[in-house]
Amino acid sequence: MSKRESKKTYFLRAKMSSIDSRLILGGALVLLVLIGAGIFLLSQPGGSTTTTPVRSPTPTATPTAPATTPTPIITPTPGLTPTPTAAPTTPAASPTPTVLAGGREVKILAAGATFLFPQMDTWAKEFRNKYRNIIIEYSSIGSGAGQARFLEKVVDIGATDPPLTPANLARAKQDPRGVIQMPVVIGAVTIVYNLPMVEGKLKLDGRIIALIYRGEIEKWNDPRIAALNPGAKLPDAPIVAVRRSDASGTTNIFTMFLFKSSEGAWERERVGVQPSWPIDQVAPARARAGRGNEGVAEIVRNTLYSIGYVEYTQAQVARLAMAQVKNAAGRFMDPTPETMMAAAAGAFRFFPANPDDDFNSAWESVVFAPGENSYPITSFSFLLFYKVYPKDKAEVIKEFIRWINTEGQSVMAPGYIPIPEEIRRYNLRWIELIREG
Amino acid sequence: MSYARVSSHDKIVFYSLVPPTLFVVLILMTLFLTQLYHSIPIFDVQGLLNTYTVNRWYPTQSPPELWKEPHYGLLPTIWGTIYVSGIAVLLALPLSISLAVFIEELLPRRFRGYMSSLVDLMAGTPTILFGLWGLSFLGPLLKEFFMEPAHEGLGFLPIFSCTPLSGTSILTAGVMLAVMIIPFMVAVIQESYKAIPVTYKEAAWSLGLTRFEYVRLNLSMIVPAIVSAVLLGLGRASSETAAVALVVGNIYALSFCMFSPTHTLTSIIAANFGEVEMYPYMRNALFAGGLFLLTFGMIINAMGIVLLRRIRF
């Protein structure tokens, strides 16, 4: 302070600074209002007031059908018997009702796996375009919470990446409302890496990935990696193993794959949505964890010599290099929709006879499933339905199940893989288990 | 204010203030009791001391009867919290003092308001933005220009001993938190600095002190404020969640090396709470972490407030 400050100027200055902050506050307020208005305007075209064309192969209903048309309600998909050898019905042939629940507004609450959120959101929108009075709301709260909310019966549909745990399934089966577990989308986990000097695709197998995530393979030029990648310029640099920090179905599938494919290098008790990682004790400096698929992708992108695992969708969005992974038949497979569908189709034979049977062993068989063209880290995500619903909801749920297994499979969110034909038929059989009550 | 001067009208006004005050206190109590209530099961299963002193985090679905050793130890996360916020405060303190003195003493008067508003704006910025900045800008920058040279030149020091492999690390989180707590520390220091009576300052000038001696004298009068700024900064840094979770690496490990990742108490709660229902007792372990954080934060903040009260001119 060069000049001495009198009390008067001291207060004046205090006043001035408060005027400045008021100016800034005012400016911020105006900015907020502008942003709010912008968001509102942007949301209008895609909002509920305009109808987007239905991309389904059989546009049976006009989206703007007035709710007053008293069309008789037709039970969807007749003629399906609950035997595994049922004759396939072509989706397009099944008659669909044009009005559900007599045009009354029905709100279906669904909650669970974050992985399913984009797909369920897409389905909810398309379904609403078809039936204007049906609102399906999906909360993305995680698989564990999805199972818990389903058992507490506070939602109409549960969603989970792994099937119901044996304990949860026992609880669900004891309940008079019962349970139907339904695999609806394929989830695949890709191995991504940041090695700009390596040309072509890196080839890895389960044992090597397990040893990397144990901290035992320390460098990229390890002879075990080099043996799988002859000719690749593997750097003499430590490997950073990136994983999920939050509990996740992706981690569950990934660790299940490690357990099944690594010939004993990964223990059964380290399989789970949030397992314990041996590298933390061995070499924490070579481990990192990010929140969500985005978090892992971001760390891999920013970290040279890193390896990570992310959902196929996210790996595509992030444009990360994806490794070829050795499948049960000994072939190195690229993660593509074709190889994932092949894996899913190959896994179908492990499915239980009833939808309220334990899916866990089936789900475990799906990962690293046999098949020449199967991508090995493939799995399913499940929707959970009750067998008994109130009158209007029963009708809506039946139609929703029919729809997601027929037309819905052609309106997939970007990066999501539809389920193969035989699984759709398997799912469609359970519609008649649903009744009003 | 003495009660003798309170009129009957004033009394009504004052009594009307009692319920909201009680309400706030009640909420704080329920906050504490919630943490305590949900922590007790994990203390029953593996012991209070074990929960806070064991370096082992092994989520399990098996029932506690089968546990051979404690599965949910919080020690590395407590260490991580202290380490990260310690770095933050150590870095933020000289910067905050400098900034506060600069604004008060050197900045031309007409810019002071703007500068103060800018600092306030920083305090009001959503923390997640700092997190994104830390993840995609600060982390890579620190790795390239600080961590790697420091490791090569001073690798014999334990704090620089591990190879820096990624931008996400204890150091990155500490530096990011330093930036985030500076506005709060500046506010505390600046307010006290302003409150030094003008007569004192005039006296200092009249003694013919140099500007440096003058500033040092002024600062010596507000030492309690500086200490309380440190404590408030520590409280804030240890409670930050979203931004820290992005840059701290989220690895359950106890490490003294700055370039290694860790978990903080807040980041382990944030990371695990989503799927907590898959593992029995993990929820309780996380609440035990919350209980520790709450107690720690209360003590730190209380110390800060008590110290701030001690300034009397």
* Elements of chain B, N to C (H/E): HHHHHHHHHHHHH
Low-pLDDT runs of chain A: 45-94
Structural class of chain A: alpha/beta
**Helical/strand content category of chain B:** mainly alpha
Query: Biggest interface between protein chains, with counts per chain?
Result: A-B, 53 and 54 residues
The general outline of chain B is globular
Order of helices and strands of chain A: HEHEHEHEEHHEHHEHEHEEEHHEEHHE
Task: Tell me roughly what share of residues is in helical segments of chain A.
Answer: 25-40%
Number of domains of chain A: 2
- What's the CATH architecture name of the largest domain in chain A? 3-Layer(aba) Sandwich
Please, what is the CATH homologous superfamily of chain B? MetI-like
Number of contiguous helices of chain B: 13
Query: Could you give the count of β-strands of chain B?
Result: 0
Overall mean confidence score, pLDDT of chain B: 89
Architecture (CATH level 2) name of chain B? Orthogonal Bundle
What's the CATH superfamily of the largest domain in chain A, by name? Periplasmic binding protein-like II
Roughly what fraction of the amino acids of chain B lie in strands? under 5%
The CATH topology of the largest domain in chain A comes to D-Maltodextrin-Binding Protein, domain 2
Give helix % range of chain B.
over 70%
Please compute the radius of gyration of chain B using only Cα atoms.
Answer: 23 Å
Description:
The complex is a heterodimer of chains A (437) and B (313). Chain A has two domains: 97-186 and 349-371 and 379-436, 3-Layer(aba) Sandwich (D-Maltodextrin-Binding Protein, domain 2); 188-346, Periplasmic binding protein-like II (D-Maltodextrin-Binding Protein, domain 2, 3-Layer(aba) Sandwich). Chain A has helices spanning 7-46, 117-130, 143-151, 166-174, 206-214, 223-228, 249-261, 279-282, 292-302, 312-318, 337-347, 360-366, 391-404, 421-428, and strands at residues 106-112, 134-140, 157-160, 180-193, 203-204, 240-244, 287-290, 306-311, 321-322, 324-326, 332-333, 378-385, 388-389, 435-436. Chain A is globular. The model of chain A is unreliable at 45-94 (pLDDT under 50). Chain A is α/β, with parallel strands linked by helices and 437 residues long. By secondary structure, chain B is mainly α. Chain B has one domain (30-56, 74-309): MetI-like (MetI-like fold, Orthogonal Bundle), CATH 1.10.3720. Chain B is built from 13 helices and no strands. Chain B has helices at residues 8-16, 18-46, 48-53, 75-106, 109-124, 127-154, 170-195, 198-206, 211-221, 223-239, 242-247, 265-272, 282-309. In chain B, helix 5 (109-124) packs across helix 7 (170-195) and helix 12 runs antiparallel to helix 13. The longest helix of chain B is centred in the first third of the chain and has 32 residues, at 75-106. Chain B is globular. The two termini of chain B are 20 Å apart. The model of chain B has no long low-confidence stretch (mean pLDDT 89). At the A-B interface, helix 1, helix 3, strand 7 and helix 9 of A face helix 5, helix 6, helix 8 and helix 12 of B.
